[in-house]
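Posting this for the archive.
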Amino acid sequence: MNKKTNQSFEDIKNIDNNGNEFWYARDLQQVLGYATWDKFERVIQKAIIAAINSEQSESHHFSQVGKMVEIGSGAQRKTKDYKLSRYACYLIVQNADASKPIIANGQTYFAIQTRRKELEDDTGFQQLSEDQKRLMLRNELATHNKQLAAAAKDAGVETSLDYAIFQNHGYKGLYGGLDNKAIHQRKELKKSHKILDHMGSTELAANLFRATQTEEKLKRDEVKIKRQANQTHHEVGKKVRQTIQELGGTMPEDLPVPGKGIKQLERAQKKVKKGE
């Protein structure tokens, strides 16, 4: 097996002189398991069209470069390559062969990378306090959980019990086998506490990735069977966990529990607004 197929997306990441991350298309081709450049370049062209349709700069995200490669007996020739932004890689894996297991991993990895960078670059978000970040992400997660519930219902998850089981599959994937009850115990929360209301911003972001990526995958794969929906949620949770590990992050079950729950923060925020 080609050594590069054992590498992760983090392993093939490069940093330019300005500290920006980028990936070479030829390296990405190997990791994604495309045997020929011609087939992979067709995926790149689809991604470029998607970028243009989203009014993004092709040259900024898909910069053509030439690379010298050995062709035997010490000889070299120049081959076509691309320097890809994180966003370009995200579009490529979204347009790649979904039957390849590594593609699903790539979709999660680059979705997290892109969203993480958006938050890092968002001056307004970075100026928020930790409590304000928690409130913002919790509200965003509440919205996406409604959308996830709707997608799950279309995938055969119909009753309240079905949905509880569906949610536990996602938690087990993200939390290394822990379900809702086990997370409560691990975090030493009261039975009445909602675990999402007692997470810091980092943990909320991880769960937001889980919810959004599961919703997208249920729709993209046109899942219509409850068992498959549960499996999809578990797989996405597991891939989010794997990506956090690759990025050197702390596992969600090991993140600290904030001193105040979301309800307390909301009440405090209302008092502040009344006093203005």
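Residues 3-90 form one domain. The radius of gyration is 21 Å.
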